[in-house]
Design a protein that fits this description.
The complex is a heterodimer. Chain A is α/β, with parallel strands linked by helices. Chain A contains 7 helices and 14 strands. Chain A has a 7-stranded parallel beta sheet with strand order 7-11-6-1-4-5-12, with helices on both faces. A 3-stranded antiparallel beta sheet of chain A has the order 8-9-10. Classes of the chains: A alpha/beta, B alpha/beta. At the A-B interface, α3, α4, β7, β9 and β10 of A face α3, α4, β7, β9 and β10 of B.
Amino acid sequence: MNIVACVKQVPDTEALIKVKPDGSGIEEGGIKWVMNPYDEFGVEEALKLKEKLGGEVTVVSVGPARTMETIRTALAMGAEKGIHIDDPALYNADAYTTANALAAAIKEIPYDIIFCGQRAIDGDMGQVGSILAELLDIPQCTIVTKLDVGDGKATAVKPIEGAQLVLETSLPCVITAQKGLNEPRYASLPGIMKAKKKPVDVKNAAALGISVEPKAKIEKMTPPPARPPGKIIEGEDPAAKAAEVIRLLREEAKVI
Amino acid sequence: MSKGVWIVAEQRDGALRKVSFELASAARKLADELGDEVGAVLLGAGVEGLAPELGKYGVDKVYVADDAVFAQYTTDAYAAAVAKVVKENDPAILLLAASVLGKDLSSRLVGKLATGMASDCVELKIEGGKLIAKRPMYAGKTFGEVSVSGSPQMAQLRPNVFPANENAKAGEVVKFDAGVSAADIKAKVAEVQQDTSGKVDLTEAEIIVSGGRGMKGPENYNIIEELADVLGATVGASRAAVDAGWRPQSDQVGQTGKVVSPNLYIACGISGAIQHLAGMSSSKYIVAVNKDPDAPIFAKADYGIVDDLFKIVPELTTAAKKIM
């Protein structure tokens, strides 16, 4: 089976994010970069599938030179090879342009199933997997918490508000991974050593023959709106303090 | 030239979901500013009768494809139908819900229409005739203002953030032929497993009572559930509580869980790790109960009680019972 896992390098969840003074982006100094947590679920599922059905896993990523660390992490977890799409015109690209770059690279290799994280925790757009599926003209199952692949089809569980859908699709398809799908493995030391020798193709936009004309643009970034300072309910008696909060919620906030 | 502000209405089992009215109201506001009409796409089986409800919230025309093939949401059928009617009518702006199915549909449409979209927006405005959509990024640690150069300019609206205002318009039904058949559906819904808890989903709840590490164990959530019952609230949890196995994954609020924006969020024994705040800081009112006065949650809280939650939460239940 030919399995593809798309990954993105993002700031660690604990990273302090500071907007540049001109609002053009974030300050990248001091940030610890990691594999997007949702992509880790995708890589893990790709590896589990390979272990069950045989085949190989190709990791694909778009990003600057540092992205190679994240590709090597996936290779150390057990993927066979990587494709690194590195082009300054694609750094911080919008979802369509990113998906278009991934699609161009993936079209050049055989694929039966493609994993993406359901969203990346930096831009929080959650679009790339679906756009990729559309550009490859294959079905999608998004935000998936359980997957079973066999007999040329995939069965996926997708929680929605108040219910769960069980989806069935032919292959090839795109699966976007949600937390709960699996527990990603850590790279082993021998895995890390082996990863250094695994092949990674580096390509730019021209080599892929794609347009880098953006479809959406971040005009400016701002810090989150400040909330007005709250009230701390003082006192010794728990019952009195609780009653005061309930009173405020009813009379001042009017939310109960 | 592209004209009109459109929405894709979301219905489930023949009833419009609340977010559809929020979409209609937000679209009406933009359309009034642009001097345009509001169009809504409505797909389903036996749904034509819902059009007047959309009219009530400001929709001029409802483009309806009423067919058994749309009885259940599928990406393939819905995306093909919406793409077709959008291409035929060329609206300038297209708004969808940032609900689970809205995210799936809208993202596929971005691919089909080769355009851009601002996901999970909390504010919309028009500048120089163009849509500017404000949205949290980095889990709400920053906000970005996004413009779309493709057409239509697409945005997903976070449920529960935009008000639903009645503003009666014609809601005229325009039927269209979606040209979709069952054979076009590659990813099929084999089964729908209804959640039988009878609780409103976290992402749609108006009140949430959440418990974190301070709950000390799964056996103590009964006090959270009792308060939630009295308030008609849904129970949530922090990542710490979910990772410890105290609560199911589906209860998690935060950067790697659900993003919620209820009218009231009561955080009990939650310190307010940045990844939790990311999931709930757009709540309209926040109450924090924590014995650590330095817990970061207090910086976000409208009302805070610094005390032992095991003393306070049952008293909140008692006090609430008296007035509810």
